[in-house]
Design a protein that fits this description.
By secondary structure, this protein is α/β, with parallel strands linked by helices. The strands form two sheets. Strands 2-1-3-4 form a four-stranded parallel beta sheet, with helices on both faces. It has a four-stranded parallel beta sheet with strand order 6-5-7-8, sandwiched between helices. Helix 1 packs across helix 8 and helix 2 packs parallel to helix 3. The protein starts with a strand and ends in a 32-residue tail after the last helix.
């Protein structure tokens, strides 16, 4: 089984960290290939970044389909380009936010999200509504740690995330924490031990869900809006993304 894990930003060190998190949870026989777009933002922290990230995701899904990938994971908590990627891929495409929400809802009656910049909380709020988790998600909390500060010891990221998670559990009366950034993946086990509640890293959750769907022989439905894009010639900067043939 070959799963392509896409980091939608262009920071190689973060791509490598995401790859380590995916490898750590993958089953024997699962080959993880971690990739990033050839263009885009170094981190995704707003709607404008998200647009470019979505285009980068489609670039990598197209390449992955041609390389024989069985499934894809979009390793950004905004799930950029998820619907478009599902149009392009015959196999499952899992966004880490959707995966984390599903897993958290199986482990607690309510969960809280702890994420990076407060300005990105609204993006998570939109996804909670879009995916139908309004009754399970009890709060979304920004730590105001920039994505690329997560691996900087000077940012004191772990202590700040831990404090935010503790406050969220108390304020929201929730039973689980969802980490709202792929860059937090390596903090998951330590946070879970310190907090005493389930802490869900979306990268690991998405990899395991992708493995399950592929093992069950399930593929993305091509009946309806996830049907392959209609072939047409795009103009200008979008020309390389012109839909060609059905996957």
């Amino acid at each position: 089984m070959q799963i392509h894990v896409i980091n939608p930003n262009t920071t190689a060190s973060m791509t490598a960290a995401i790859g380590r998190a995916a490898d750590a949870c993958a089953a024997p026989g699962t080959v993880i290939r971690v990739v990033q777009p050839s263009f885009g933002a170094p981190s995704i922290e707003g709607h404008h970044d998200d647009v470019w990230a979505a285009a980068g995701v489609t670039e990598q899904v197209r390449a992955g389909v041609e390389a024989g990938a069985d499934a894809f994971v979009i390793a950004c908590f905004g799930d950029p380009g998820l619907a478009a990627a599902r149009e392009l891929s015959p196999g499952p495409v899992i966004g880490i936010a959707e995966a984390a929400f599903h897993c958290a809802s199986l482990l607690a009656t309510g969960f809280s999200v702890v994420t990076t910049l407060t300005r990105t909380c609204v993006i998570a709020e939109h996804l909670v509504v879009q995916y139908g988790f309004e009754r399970r998600c009890r709060g979304i909390h920004g730590t105001d740690i920039a994505v690329l500060e997560l691996d900087d010891p000077a940012s004191d990221a772990y202590a700040r995330i831990l404090a935010s998670a503790r406050a969220a559990l108390a304020h929201d009366r929730s039973g689980a924490i969802v980490l709202g950034c792929a860059g937090m993946a390596d903090l998951c086990q330590r946070l879970q031990a310190d907090l005493g509640v389930p802490v869900i890293d979306g990268v690991a959750a998405a990899v395991k869900l992708a493995e399950s769907l592929v093992s069950l022989g399930l593929r993305t439905s091509k009946h309806g809006d996830y049907a392959a894009p209609l072939p047409k010639a795009y103009a200008g900067l979008a020309a390389p993304f012109s839909p060609r043939t059905s996957p």
